[in-house]
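ok posting inputs for the adenosine-5'-diphosphate job
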Amino acid sequence: MELQDIKGIGTKSIERLNKLNIFTVEDLITYYPYRYNVYNPLALNENVDEQETIVINATIESTPRIFYIRRNFKRLSFKALANNLLINVVLFNRTFLYKNLDIGKEVCLVGKYDKKKNTFVAVEIKLNWLTETKIEAVYHTIKGLKNTQLHQFIMNALPLKETVCDYIPTFLQEKYHFLDKRTSILEMHQPHSKNTLKQARLRSIYEEFFIFMLKINYLKNRNEKIKGVAKNYEEEKLEQFLSSLPFELTPDQATAVQDCLKDLKSEKRMNRLIEGDVGSGKTIVATITMVANTFSGYQSALMAPTEILAKQHYETINNLVKDFGIRVSLLTGSLKKKEHKEILEKLRNGEIDILIGTHALISEEVAFKNLGLVITDEQHRFGVNQRGNLQNKGILPDTIYMSATPIPRTYALTIYQDMDTSLIKTKPSGRKEIKTYVKKESELKGVLEHILKEIKMGHQIYVVAPSILEQEERNLHDVNNLKESFDTAFQHKVKIEVLHGKIKSKEKEEIMDRFQSGETKILIATTVIEVGVDVKNATTIVIFNAEMFGLATLHQLRGRVGRNDLESTCFLISDYDKERLKVLEESNDGFYISEQDFLMRREGDLFGTRQSGDMVFKIADLKHDFKILLYAKEDSKIFLKSTTNLEEKYQTILKSVSHID
Ligand code: ADP
Ligand code: MG
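and the output
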């Protein structure tokens, strides 16, 4: 069953859904609302609170009239009877409702009541009475795809038999008396009551954790059962490579390298997590291990979460290894058909030693000759439901995961304790603290002066704004507006470019190239630059609407600067949330910051959770739902122990982490 098989979804809609990262029917039905509107109708009377948005039922008593106030600004007004009070109703701009509003029509109004003027200022009109409390799902969506449309697609998909796949085994389903999966998903999108919604959430959270922990426990078990290949390389050759590196490894890096090499040489299949704060230098550890793997006669694959990062890894790594006869290739979506085909062929013939790319590497057509090592960068970024596996004949490759773990240590320990871990605690020496300042919008002038000074010194600047997805709440800065303001401020004398997720890959690469080379001075971007991007000459980052981001995300973003020994500065621009943002002024320590982030985050309030985007869980919140995680963890172990023949559906999800089996 594919998206196009669902009623109402055509090619245009598919394009838009893809932009929301919805590719499969399962993605669609688990595209959960980020918020709910609760409509609780009440009887209008003299005592209602004028400050509060209320919901009332009314009957239209006069033909609506439209007033043109000025261009693009219209007012619709009519008289209505609400609970025996005759009131005036006004509504701005949504005048297209006009044709539905006849005398005698029963409507439901959402808005505020001004007693003195006896006027109800409506922000929303529903075309029938609401007799009981209604909870309505609100989704993050994009232009061209309305909330109601998205909701309807989901509703059209849900009744279809093949769309829902339940991952909670029957014995656990019975133990916890969960709602069944279909009911639970339906409740998530169209809740009957707060209580049923709560039950549905509970089940969804548990299932998400269960799958996650199942994957981790599976990796652990698998490695105990199945032997890998013991790799052999000439120590001397590796020594030569090590002495060619442009810097000395930090002690933690050296230890991590030793851990990886030991695993590589052993018959045990490597399953290692390299954990280290932003800028701690994880890439070099990966590179050295891949070089050792090449010297042993095997191919390596490195997967990055974004194309920008993949390209950057390609350049850095190729530079380091090319003199040693190691052949590196980059596989991205922007390659020409012919180039693409060529790479695939070389890969099969063993003419490529290291392949770098995005998760596109995990596709049917990508087949290796003898893949011996798979490395996943920024592991926490990859979707929990990532599907597919690497194609390889016969050999079981070692696996390394790299992560800046934007979660506090206690949580990290609980989740990852069953994996072998190498921790990189300290950053390379010579790094200065990134000076961080929280500034109000009104203090921008000083920030601009700082930017100009830095540009005059030959340095470069990142400017970050929330992505377009987050725009619906209120007026936020966006990359295009900022480009205009900055162009005006610098009188078009400074080269400024814009980068966001919707730009085509090829163009994205060119924009990054121009920034990397120093031609572009200011790069205005969404969080596409959040992970891994490494431009050493960038010394300042300005983040607008900083209140929209989790502290861990801000810390990652800030990590784009301070990548050499130059003084670096981060400005967090926000009129809100000063207390929380101050944590970043005070600390440069990723672990401390993620702990504070968790402490200060509002309790996982059902009707207004902040989108933090730090972890890949769609609905679970590590802090709020930690107890559920503990249960899911133990249950997943029991399940794996008790089952010898895993059902097909589990095999599919487990392949996605094992990459190959
Ligand atoms: P992350 O752990 O965030 O992925 P990177 O691997 O991108 O960090 O490294 C950050 C920067 O530090 C890179 O520019 C890299 O070249 C540099 N670097 C890494 N290790 C060292 C070291 N031991 N000494 C000096 N610079 C280093
Ligand atoms: Mg990195």
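notes: The two ends are 26 Å apart (CA to CA). Confidence is low (pLDDT under 50) at residues 382-387, 602-614.
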